[in-house]
């Protein structure tokens, strides 16, 4: 929900009032106060008090008590509505003498001047944020970063309520009983996956000699022993090395064994090398010189590899030998092999017999999450280990240092399990489960040492770290944010941290969560355009529409482009389905997969920016036809932040015809609808914007005709601004970049602080917009200005009553 607006587009800035409820209105300076006491009150007496006096006031609203500037400052919400109806021409009613346009403008300017001066001079008021729980996205992301589990437990939670357009607003994030049950079940499931209480036996894999590679229809065998020899000109099947594939995790140690024996007529022992085929970046990869010492036609094809061990084979037919080598972690193991080492010059060629290859591991079967969470000094007593492990875990889970009392209670919880005969791991797992159902984890708690103090002051550094991370990542702070907060160095490093965090892949949450809600694209999930009229629409195209917008906005975030690209840009992303829908023939051809997206240039086309993307055009249409009203309203609400007021009661909807509606008849019917005086003022703003996009059908395909009628995409906005078609419409929108920047700033600040904006936030929004303009409208500048604003960095206690 945008910051409450008092006057729509087109009025002078002096009359554009966006200010707020205050705790103690500042005394306006004499010029503004005198102007209202004289001219403002005179206007009320002449045009308003006849209906809104003390005797049976219309709408139960008496305006007689508003005789001073201070009085209207105390009732800003009422005066927001007063200004709206006067500007819209709704009041005075037509049955009463009507003020002239000049009288209305002068009155609105007088009232606006009072509010505008107050907003510039009043003490800062950062507002109050309701303590809010983690929403589903934040819960999943926080569990991922805290525990490291590979699933999304919050998917089973009830849907989050939406307030002011977003699902992270504290006032609407309630806690129904069913959610409490899901929290407990999720916490138990998470810790069962993360911590392995009962050790699991290390897996074993072996491969018989006859099945080793290199493979052939005639593998050389002797009593099921694979035979490998040194033979000039021999192929890989004969000379080896023999090997087999192992698909294993990369973070564990393994033991490799091979049962072998050898035969030779020479005086030197037969030597073999154990090879671990691995990533080329693994430490200790064999050099050319080391590989040259090995025999076998398959040596070259196995590279890169690490030579783990070189041993003499002493085993015989009666007493075979088992050779063993430890395989290190994190080398990217792909295969294990055994190779003969070339004999010394003059020595006869030996023969090696391999019965099987065997791999055991990982030797530590605990999951990586277990090893990370329970990492500690194993030499300490159990109680000290618990304090080390649980202190680290609770500090990260609570997003602040755990207190001694909190830690003591957690250690006692763990000890209650060990006292009952369970393992130390089981006790720690139980205490960690308790942490995950604690309000200190489930809620973003910002403790205040002065809850009654009305003065604005900075929030704590750890609280700032949480606000920043949940704003940009929808997750908990990482180690660097924690470290800076602990040193009280986060505030002076905010701009640098914004740059760092926006470069992180986790910043994609700004697209997935913020942008998709701001643009109100969620209804696309359930959109059902008429299958007969739009046969090209299907679930695959629906998914492509979503993906185009996400990739487009993702580039703006990732490459720190201007936010004005959202209005109009010379590129987008399409796959084959979207390319066909858009008529981009070059992008529709080629050898790419059907679902693969590519970046395409839009210069010279009628597309560019979100306004001409199929996702937006589809959600702002009806199932059988386009809707100029929906599209125009969407532009006013989501891009310009100047939503029209709700329609008057008892105004009939535009009737749907029983046949396909042509653009011509649709425009004619809309003009008929606007003859209703109650509808005219709002539709005069919405309809032209919508008709400017009429060349795009209900699923976003371009068209010149609708049925037999040529489409007229022209329009005229209030103030006599004329245009024809989407290209000229976008140029007009770019001339209103200040309105767009303000709208975007309001939306982003709402999302960032988790509450609806109040009048008192106007000064902060003004600073964000001014800073954004100074920095060429770069996306990072917008985010930096938001996180440095008073509502984001400051807090206050309760206001005096």
Protein architecture, described:
The chain is α+β, with helices and mostly antiparallel strands. Among the domains are: 13-121, no CATH class; 204-360, Galactose-binding domain-like (Jelly Rolls, Sandwich), CATH 2.60.120; 522-732, no CATH class; 737-795. The chain contains 30 helices and 20 strands. The strands form 7 sheets. Strands 2, 3, 4, 6, 9 and 11 form a 6-stranded antiparallel β-sheet that branches. It has a 4-stranded antiparallel β-sheet with strand order 5-10-7-8, with no helix packed on it. Strands 1-12 form a two-stranded antiparallel ribbon. The longest helix has 21 residues, at 101-121. The two termini are 26 Å apart. Residues 720-792 form the DUF1585 domain.
Please sum up the structure shown.
InterPro entries: Cyt_c_Planctomycete-type (IPR011429), DUF1585 (IPR011478), DUF1587 (IPR013036), DUF1588 (IPR013039), DUF1592 (IPR013042), DUF1595 (IPR013043). By secondary structure, the protein is of the alpha+beta class.
């Amino acid at each position: 929900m945008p910051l409450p607006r008092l006057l729509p587009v087109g009025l002078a800035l002096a009359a554009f009032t966006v200010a707020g409820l205050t705790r103690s209105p500042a005394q306006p300076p004499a010029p503004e106060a005198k102007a209202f006491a004289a001219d403002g009150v005179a206007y009320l007496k002449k045009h308003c008090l006849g209906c809104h006096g003390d005797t049976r006031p219309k709408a139960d609203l008496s305006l007689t008590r508003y005789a001073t500037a201070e009085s209207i400052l105390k009732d800003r919400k009422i005066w927001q509505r007063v200004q709206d109806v006067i500007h819209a021409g709704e009041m005075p009613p037509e049955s009463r003498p009507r003020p002239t346009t000049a009288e209305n403008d002068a009155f609105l300017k007088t009232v606006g001047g009072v509010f505008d001066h107050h907003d510039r001079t009043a003490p800062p008021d950062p507002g109050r944020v309701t303590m809010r729980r983690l929403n589903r996205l934040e819960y999943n992301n926080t569990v991922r970063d805290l525990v490291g589990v590979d699933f999304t437990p919050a998917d089973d939670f009830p849907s989050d309520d939406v307030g002011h357009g977003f699902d992270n607003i504290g006032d609407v994030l309630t806690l129904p009983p069913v959610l409490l049950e899901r929290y407990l079940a999720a916490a138990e499931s998470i810790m069962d996956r993360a911590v392995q209480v009962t050790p699991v036996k290390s897996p074993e894999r072996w491969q018989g000699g006859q099945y080793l590679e290199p493979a052939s229809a005639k593998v050389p065998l002797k009593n099921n022993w694979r035979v490998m020899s040194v033979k000039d000109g021999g192929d890989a099947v004969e000379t080896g090395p023999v090997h087999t594939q192992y698909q294993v995790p990369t973070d564990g140690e393994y033991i490799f064994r091979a049962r072998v024996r050898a035969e030779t007529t020479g005086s030197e022992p037969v030597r073999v090398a154990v090879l671990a085929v691995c990533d080329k970046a693994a430490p200790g990869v064999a050099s050319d010189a080391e590989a040259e010492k090995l025999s076998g036609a398959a040596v070259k094809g196995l590279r890169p590899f690490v030579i783990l061990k070189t041993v003499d084979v002493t085993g015989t037919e009666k007493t075979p030998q088992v050779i063993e080598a430890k395989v290190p972690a994190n080398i990217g193991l792909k295969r294990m092999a055994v190779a003969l080492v070339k004999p010394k010059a003059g020595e006869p060629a030996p023969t090696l017999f391999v019965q099987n290859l065997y791999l055991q591991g990982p030797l530590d079967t605990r999951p990586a999450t277990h090893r990370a969470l329970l990492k500690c000094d194993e030499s300490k007593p159990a109680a000290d280990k618990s304090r080390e492990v649980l202190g680290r875990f609770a500090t990260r889970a609570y997003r602040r240092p755990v207190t001694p009392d909190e830690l003591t209670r957690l250690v006692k919880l763990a000890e209650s399990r060990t006292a009952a005969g369970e393992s130390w791991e089981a006790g720690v797992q139980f205490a960690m489960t308790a942490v995950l159902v604690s309000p200190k984890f489930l809620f973003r708690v910002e403790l205040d040492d002065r809850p009654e103090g009305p003065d604005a002051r900075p929030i704590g550094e750890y609280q700032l770290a949480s606000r920043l991370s949940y704003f940009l990542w929808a997750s908990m702070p990482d180690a660097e944010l924690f470290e800076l907060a602990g040193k009280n160095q986060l505030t002076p490093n905010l701009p640098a941290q914004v740059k760092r965090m926006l470069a992180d892949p986790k910043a994609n949450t700004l697209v997935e969560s913020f942008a998709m809600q701001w643009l109100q694209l969620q209804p696309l999930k359930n959109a059902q355009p008429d299958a007969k009229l739009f046969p090209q629409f299907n679930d695959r195209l629906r998914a492509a529409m979503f993906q185009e917008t996400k990739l487009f906005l993702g580039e703006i975030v990732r490459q720190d482009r201007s936010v004005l690209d959202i209005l109009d840009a010379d590129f987008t992303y399409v796959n084959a389905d979207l390319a066909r829908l858009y008529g981009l023939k070059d992008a529709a051809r080629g050898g790419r997969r059907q679902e693969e997206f590519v970046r395409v240039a839009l210069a010279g086309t009628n597309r560019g920016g979100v306004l001409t993307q199929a996702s937006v055009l589809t959600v702002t249409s009806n199932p059988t036809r386009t809707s100029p009203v929906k599209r125009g309203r969407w532009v006013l609400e989501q891009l310009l932040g100047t939503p029209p007021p709700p329609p008057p009661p008892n105004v009939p909807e535009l009737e749907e015809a029983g046949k396909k509606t042509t653009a011509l008849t649709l425009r004619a019917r809309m003009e008929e609808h606007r003859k209703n005086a109650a509808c005219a003022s709002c539709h005069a703003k919405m309809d032209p914007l919508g008709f400017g996009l009429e060349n795009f059908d209900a699923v976003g395909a371009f068209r010149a005709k609708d049925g037999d009628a040529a489409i007229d995409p022209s329009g005229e906005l209030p103030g006599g601004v004329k245009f024809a078609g989407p290209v000229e419409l976008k140029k007009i929108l770019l001339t209103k970049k200040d309105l767009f920047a303000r709208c975007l700033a309001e939306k982003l600040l709402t999302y960032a602080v988790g509450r609806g904006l109040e009048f008192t936030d106007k000064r902060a929004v003004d600073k964000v917009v001014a800073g954004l303009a100074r920095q060429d409208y770069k996306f990072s500048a917008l985010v930096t200005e938001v996180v440095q604003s008073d509502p984001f960095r400051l807090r206050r206690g309760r206001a005096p009553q």
